[in-house]
């Protein structure tokens, strides 16, 4: 009888070992088809900027086929929702950021995703201040000019990447702190908004410094201020709102890559390892910093903890603001 029990136990151990082989093999061969990175906004914005740098370098370093796909709409929420419903196999990722992952679920009642429960965080990709840009012919040169124009009867026409984006929240906060008249003009992304600012269709754009940087460096826009508590290392001459006309303002925007919840931990680990290599590459660091962006990195566990904490913090801020979009 004891012999029979030992034989049964041995057979069970062998079967268990064999059952694990497909899982190991599956993780080892990932990826065996193209990886898609969804970008929630059109080309020309800060999220698109970092997505294309990261996607290209990931393909270069690994030999993987990486496809970056812009899928704008609903303030960026369409791409986030699509990613949350994609197969949990690591082949559909999304470049989430403060706008959609932290603000959207608190602002909209109709979203079908939960920023914490619906995704497996992979890695933080970047952090950048938000900035305020205007046309060189707008007559606005300084933060004080913003306030002066904002106190006129017509006020300031203020372009954003969409309702519920951080540019929207920053504008509302700035309006209260400086007691000025701001009229928001929401777009489907930073690119279209910036085009209209350069054409003087709207007075200013509030959004990521990354989306403003190339136009500010070419002279097509003026960077009037940044919304972080500290000045940007790439634009040291651009003052903060905190130090000039809106004491206490401190807003930055992060981006990060997410997979659908349920994606195998081994797959997340592979992606995290290779993306850390990408973000540590000297040329990636140089390109990001030239665009006013600080590269991220770190473990997926650390990013998941950050997301959970930041989500709770933004929930408090949104509730205090009273802003609700539906």
Derived from helix and strand composition plus strand pairing, the structural class reads alpha/beta
Report strand %.
15-25%
Question: In angstroms, what is the radius of gyration?
Answer: 23 Å
Q: State the major sheet.
A: 10 strands, mixed
How many helices? The count is: 12
Order of helices and strands: HEHEHEHEHEHEHEHEHEHHEH
Please tell me what the overall shape is: globular
C-alpha end-to-end distance: 69 Å
Report the helical percentage.
Answer: 40-55%
Number of strands: 10
Instruction: Tell me the quaternary state.
Output: single chain
The residue ranges in which pLDDT falls below 50 over 5 or more consecutive positions are 1-5, 10-27
Structural notes for this entry:
It contains twelve helices and ten strands. By secondary structure, the protein is an alpha/beta fold. Helix 2 packs across helix 8 and helix 4 packs across helix 12. The radius of gyration is 23 Å and the shape is globular. It starts with a helix and ends in a 5-residue tail after the last helix.
Features:
ten-stranded mixed β-sheet, 10 strands, 326 residues, 19% strand, single chain, disordered N terminus, alpha/beta
Structure described in brief:
With 326 residues, the protein is α/β, with parallel strands linked by helices.
Task: Give the SSE layout.
Blueprint: H1 2-29, E1 35-39, H2 46-62, E2 66-70, H3 77-84, E3 92-97, H4 98-107, E4 119-134, H5 143-150, E5 156-160, H6 166-178, E6 182-186, H7 190-198, E7 204-208, H8 209-218, E8 222-226, H9 241-244, E9 252-260, H10 265-279, H11 282-290, E10 294-295, H12 300-321
Parallel strand pairs: 1-2, 1-3, 5-6, 5-7
Antiparallel strand pairs: 3-9, 4-7, 4-8, 4-9, 4-10
Helix pairs in contact: 2-8, 2-10, 4-12
């Amino acid at each position: 009888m004891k012999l029979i029990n030992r034989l049964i136990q041995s057979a069970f151990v062998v079967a268990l070992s064999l059952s694990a082989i497909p899982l190991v093999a599956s993780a080892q061969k990932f990826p065996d088809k193209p990886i898609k990175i969804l970008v929630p906004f059109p080309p020309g914005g800060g999220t698109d900027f970092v997505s294309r740098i990261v996607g290209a370098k990931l393909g270069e370093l690994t030999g993987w086929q990486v496809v970056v796909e812009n899928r704008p709409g609903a303030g960026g929420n369409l791409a986030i929702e699509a990613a949350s419903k994609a197969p949990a196999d690591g082949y559909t990722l999304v470049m989430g950021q403060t706008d959609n992952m932290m603000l959207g679920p608190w602002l909209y009642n109709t979203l079908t995703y939960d920023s914490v429960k619906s995704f497996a965080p992979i890695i933080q990709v970047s952090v950048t201040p938000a900035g305020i840009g205007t046309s060189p012919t707008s007559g606005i040169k300084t933060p004080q000019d913003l306030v002066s124009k904002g106190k006129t009867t017509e006020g300031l026409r203020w372009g954003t990447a969409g309702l519920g984006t951080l540019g929207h929240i920053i504008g509302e906060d700035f309006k209260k702190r400086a007691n000025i008249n701001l009229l928001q003009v929401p777009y489907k992304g930073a690119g279209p908004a910036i085009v209209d600012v350069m054409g003087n269709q709207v007075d200013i754009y509030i959004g990521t410094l990354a989306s403003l940087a190339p136009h500010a460096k070419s002279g097509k826009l003026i960077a009037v201020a940044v919304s972080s508590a500290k000045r940007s290392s790439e634009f040291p001459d651009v003052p903060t709102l905190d130090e000039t006309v809106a004491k206490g303002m401190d807003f930055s925007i992060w981006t990060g890559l997410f997979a659908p919840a349920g994606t195998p931990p081994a797959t997340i680990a592979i992606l995290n390892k290779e993306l850390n290599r990408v973000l540590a590459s000297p040329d990636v660091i140089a390109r990001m910093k030239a665009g006013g962006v600080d590269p991220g990195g770190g473990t997926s566990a650390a990013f998941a903890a950050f997301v959970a904490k930041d989500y709770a913090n933004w929930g408090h801020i949104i509730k205090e603001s009273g802003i609700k979009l539906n």
